[in-house]
């Protein structure tokens, strides 16, 4: 699998901006930094969905995303069950 130019630029831009965003977060609070990370993650997900070929690498990425969602859902449910027990 070859990474598309758009994905590479997204990752590279994000990496290069992290240090400045971290310094800004120390002044402005974590919300700015976390908003930036959230936006860049959404951009990566959109680019991956629209530019990657639907081969094993893409399916592996989708599987990983699904496993992560299941893990977070189970943690949320366990925290709610633990509160009422």
Describe the model.
This protein is mainly α and 85 residues long. Helices cover 88% and strands 0% of the residues. It contains three helices and no strands. The chain has two domains: 52 residues; 33 residues. The model has no long low-confidence stretch (mean pLDDT 92). Helix 1 packs antiparallel against helix 2.
Summarize the structure.
This protein is 88% helix and 0% strand. By secondary structure, it is an all-alpha fold.
Quaternary structure type: single chain
Structure annotation, total helices: 3
How many β-strand runs?
Answer: 0
Strand content: under 5%
Helix percent reads over 70%
Let me know the largest β-sheet: none
Radius of gyration (Å): 17 Å
> Unreliable runs, pLDDT <50, ≥5 residues?
none
From the N-terminal CA to the C-terminal CA, the straight-line distance is 48 Å
Count of spatially separate domains: 2
Write the H/E string, N to C: HHH
């Amino acid at each position: 699998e070859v990474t598309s130019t758009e994905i590479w630029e997204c990752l590279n831009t994000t990496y290069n901006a992290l240090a400045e965003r971290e310094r800004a977060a120390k002044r402005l609070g974590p919300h700015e930094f976390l908003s930036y990370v959230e936006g860049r993650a959404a951009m990566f997900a959109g680019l991956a969905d629209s530019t990657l070929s639907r081969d094993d690498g893409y399916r592996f990425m989708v599987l990983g995303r699904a496993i992560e969602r299941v893990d977070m859902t189970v943690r949320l449910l366990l925290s709610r069950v633990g509160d009422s027990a």
